[in-house]
Design goal:
The longest helix has 17 residues. Strand 2 and strand 3 form a beta hairpin. With about 300 residues, this protein is mainly α. The radius of gyration is 22 Å and the shape is globular. Helix 2 runs antiparallel to helix 8 and helix 5 crosses helix 6. A 3-stranded antiparallel beta sheet has the order 1-3-2. It has 2 domains: about 230 residues, Hypothetical protein, domain 2 (Endonuclease III, domain 1); about 55 residues, Winged helix-like DNA-binding domain superfamily/Winged helix DNA-binding domain (Arc Repressor Mutant, subunit A), CATH 1.10.10.
């Protein structure tokens, strides 16, 4: 439901007015930024900070300015160029996405949410983000930051609970301006507000444009226990670290690497076997000959 202390138009005006003054200058927000660039940026921004994405995004779009350019490259080239962005399976998905766009959409990123959802690696959030930010489609875009702003300003909770599209999308839709362009700015503004001001651990309420209408603030910041997912295990010494070490070695060599050289990178033989087997199963590594391995 919309907030009770202001109507939808007033709520949106507070957010978009703040956004117009304080939005970061990011490539995907600049006029004329291509839909393909928006799609690539959304893949990169999944679980990766903006500061690491911006330089890599420029490199990718310089090398592969259109889906057809990436589709013509080997999948391993995408994995190699992904480097330190993390979760390299996203690079393979993005390559497969470029192939699908080239083959099924004549090389042009589709604007329709349902069409975007048919692309490899594109989920509900990414489909909506591309439709809204690249094409101006009026639709709710809900990420962790948006959910937190709604939980606090509208519902009076200290943070958002477990993601639930059946709840989250209607909650954002209820706040969207009727105008398409205004709705796109509001989506971006809510995301920016959650990223910069209404942060998870240290919200800057004195700088928030919603401070006077925030249900959580007006209620005295009540604490409500939120059930959260268990924290991810430490990276140091994990199978993820072992996988990363193997991929790093394979990225630096244009030729297949012997198994023995890869095994030397991981102290625990059982962990090495798990890491290599997992990379092969995920399509990130291929066997080129007996005990020789390379990127796909």
């Amino acid at each position: 439901m919309p907030p009770t202390r202001v109507n939808r138009e007033q709520f949106a005006a507070l957010v978009t007015g703040w956004f117009a003054r304080h939005a970061r200058d990011l490539p995907w927000r600049r006029p004329g930024f291509p839909p393909w660039g928006t799609l690539v940026s959304e893949f990169m921004l999944q679980q990766t900070p903006v500061v690491r994405v911006v330089p890599r995004l420029d490199e990718w779009l310089t090398r592969w300015p259109a889906p057809a350019d990436l589709a013509a490259a080997a999948p391993g080239d995408a994995v190699r160029a992904w480097e330190s962005l993390g979760y390299p399976r996203r690079a393979l998905n993005l390559h497969a996405c470029a192939v699908a766009i080239t083959e099924r959409f004549d090389g042009a990123v589709p604007s329709d949410v349902d069409a975007l959802l048919t692309l490899p690696g594109v989920g509900d959030y990414t489909a909506r983000a591309v439709a809204v930010f690249a094409f101006g489609v009026r639709a709710p875009v809900v990420d962790t930051n948006v959910r937190r702003v709604i939980a606090r300003a509208v519902d009076g909770h200290p943070d958002a609970s477990t993601p639930n599209a059946k709840r989250d999308l209607p909650a954002m839709t209820a706040l969207l301006p009727a105008d398409d362009d205004a709705a796109a700015r509001f989506n971006a503004g809510m995301m920016e507000l959650g990223a910069l001001i209404c942060t998870a651990r240290s919200p800057k309420c004195d700088l928030c444009p919603l401070a006077d209408v925030c249900a959580w603030r007006s209620a005295g910041y009540p604490e409500i226990e939120i059930v959260r997912k268990p924290r991810q295990k430490k990276y140091e010494g994990s199978d993820r670290q072992a996988r990363g070490a193997l991929l790093k070695r394979l990225r630096t060599d244009a030729h297949p690497v012997p198994r023995a050289e890869l095994a030397a990178l991981v102290a625990d033989p059982a962990q090495f076997d798990r890491a290599l087997t997992g990379l092969i199963q995920d399509g990130l590594v291929v066997t080129t000959a007996h005990d020789l391995f390379a990127l796909p």
